[in-house]
């Protein structure tokens, strides 16, 4: 199983963990590729780019075409930016699984690697690696200073392989923190089973017995979905925050009147691509939609529930997952 780990020299929260990872045993120089240096360690390829990661569309395909090696999964090392300036380690799947969001008006130019109506397959390691990262952070005395959390699905680059971002947030001081860089490097080292270790989070293939959380609703840090994911054995698909589900109230003057899902306008139905991408990435499990019930108004919740039933997407409570 070939893994691409991708870093960029223009981001201190990316190149720092990459350098710490390369200081660990077993690395050898790989081929120079599109003016970037690569490194090899067992079935892992680490690439150092000089560009913004969100601009590296189809990186997996380009690597395959240049080297003949088929890519199974991709991890991007990156900084996380937040207006709150929170100290955090974050993990998230990628994609723009809607036509427009409130910050993307019709006719506006998309930024940050965004593409409408698209979602990459989420890397199956997201849930297990989140739990591993919490253990690493605690054992290196980085918790509770650094919060370890999920983020909702967002931004690019456009890619077809199962993908995740592992990030350090959220100011220059913490992007350059050596201890934080070491924690992310250990996450990759231990998570991929380099050295003499056992890989963490290989894709489940057990005839549907694994339950996979498809998060729907909530804020960008998806706290109610996070509470479920922290349980051992939970696998994670896409995480759709409320802002990625634009919905238009069909009867704004009568909010308590029941409405049919088909009457609710907006681009929220495009979120079905997140279910399809999750199913593609984790073929050995059963995908269950987990709703952040309190984040929706009743008409929104009813519309989403009705749509999920129409699409034969099962809804699960925390105890089901």
Automatic annotation (TrEMBL):
Any matching Pfam family: tRNA_deacylase
Cross-referenced InterPro entries: Deacylase_DtdA_archaea, DtdA
Domain of life: Eukaryota
Signal peptide range: none
Record-given protein name: D-aminoacyl-tRNA deacylase
Species in which this protein is naturally found: Hevea brasiliensis
Phylogenetic classification of the source organism: Eukaryota, Viridiplantae, Streptophyta, Embryophyta, Tracheophyta
């Amino acid at each position: 199983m070939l893994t691409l780990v991708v870093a960029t020299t223009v981001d201190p929260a990316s190149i720092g963990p990459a350098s710490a990872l390369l200081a660990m045993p077993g690395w050898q120089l790989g081929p120079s590729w599109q003016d970037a240096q690569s490194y090899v360690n067992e079935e892992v390829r680490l690439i150092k780019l000089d560009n913004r990661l969100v601009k590296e569309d189809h990186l997996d395909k380009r690597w395959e075409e240049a080297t003949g090696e088929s890519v199974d999964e991709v991890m991007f090392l990156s900084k996380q930016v937040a207006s709150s300036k929170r100290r955090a380690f974050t993990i998230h799947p990628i994609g723009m699984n809607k036509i427009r969001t409130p910050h993307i008006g019709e006719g506006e130019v998309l930024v940050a690697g965004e593409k409408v109506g698209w979602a990459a397959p989420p890397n199956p390691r997201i849930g297990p690696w989140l739990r591993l990262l919490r253990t690493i952070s605690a054992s290196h005395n980085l918790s509770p200073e650094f919060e370890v959390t999920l983020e909702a699905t967002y931004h690019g680059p456009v890619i077809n392989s199962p993908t995740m971002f592992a990030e350090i947030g959220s100011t220059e001081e913490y992007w350059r923190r050596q201890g934080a860089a070491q924690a992310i490097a250990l996450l990759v080292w231990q998570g991929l089973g380099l050295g003499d270790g056992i890989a963490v989070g290989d894709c489940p293939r057990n005839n549907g017995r694994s339950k996979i959380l498809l998060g729907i609703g909530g804020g960008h840090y998806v706290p109610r979905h996070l509470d479920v994911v922290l349980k051992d054995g939970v696998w994670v698909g896409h995480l759709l925050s409320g802002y990625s589900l634009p919905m238009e109230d069909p009867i704004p003057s009568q909010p308590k009147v029941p409405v049919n899902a088909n009457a609710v306008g907006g681009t929220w139905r495009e979120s079905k691509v997140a279910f399809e991408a999750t199913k593609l990435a984790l073929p050995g499990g059963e995908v269950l939609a987990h709703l952040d019930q309190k984040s929706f108004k009743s008409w929104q919740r009813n519309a989403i529930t009705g749509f999920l039933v129409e699409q034969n997407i099962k809804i699960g409570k925390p105890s089901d997952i």
